Amino acid sequence: MQVFVGRTSPKRMDRSRRSFLASVAATAGLSGCGGVIDSAPPSTDGSAGAAANPQSATERADSSRPRLTRTDGEPVETAFTRATRERASEVGTSVRESVVVLRDGNRGGTGWFVGEGEIVTNAHVADGSRTLSVETFDGATGTGERVGYHEELQPDLALLETDLSVPPLSLGSLDDLSRGDPLVTVGHPGRLGQWILSLGRYLRVLDGIDWLLSTVPTQQGNSGGPLVTLDGDVVGVVSGATTGTAGNRPDYSRNETAYTELPEIAEQTTSVPVDTLEASLSDWR
């Protein structure tokens, strides 16, 4: 089974995955934990989504004007100041030292060090094999042995052990988050490259499904990546994407437009909250 982040290919989902998604899709408008996003959601400042991209002169001129988007709740500002973007770049370049590429044949995903010799990723990244290849940012390679894993992919978490040594990331607290706070992830969106930084905003936690929602852009390959604050603390593990509830999605039915490109529906990135990660780690260690 090929690993995706975003929209899931139904033909490639295993039985447990289909069962889980079916149970939540009606309420959450799921486009898939672990599917493909054809293109990253528009960056909050009009760029391609990488936090380190410079703003244009027009964007700098407009940066003082709030740009709001309604994302399943109260509007959040979609523009970022230059200072926020620069801080996101600093955090991302520090965090990426602890982020790894995980591979299992022609499959792959993102992982990150949570402790000495311990790598966190998604269960759907590690469900095909007990052993995955690991590559660190400095080019060191090795293997990771799966020692913790939720077979039903709920929550979508796994823990690997490796002989490689990389400084671990620190865990944060959901209590420190407010709606609209900037968040950063580092991962390997297959169409863009590896160790790519992206910046978005925190929205909320859906307790019933145990998802942390954000506007951080992700694509195929970001699965398992750390979602961090501008202090560099992990508050979630990237797992997929959702288009929100049906009532909040536009409906293009029965219009007379002949589309040369189909309209895109804004997506929100889903992540496993850090509280859920900590509970799993306590069981596996």
From TrEMBL:
GO molecular function terms attached to this record: serine-type endopeptidase activity
Q: Where is this region: Disordered?
A: 31-89
What Gene Ontology terms for biological process does this UniProt record contain?
Answer: proteolysis
Stretch forming the signal peptide: none
Q: Where is the composition biased (Basic and acidic residues)?
A: 59-73
Gene3D superfamilies the UniProt entry points to:
2.40.10.120
This protein's source sits in the domain of life called Archaea
Name of the protein in question: Serine protease
Origin species, per record, is Haloarcula pellucida
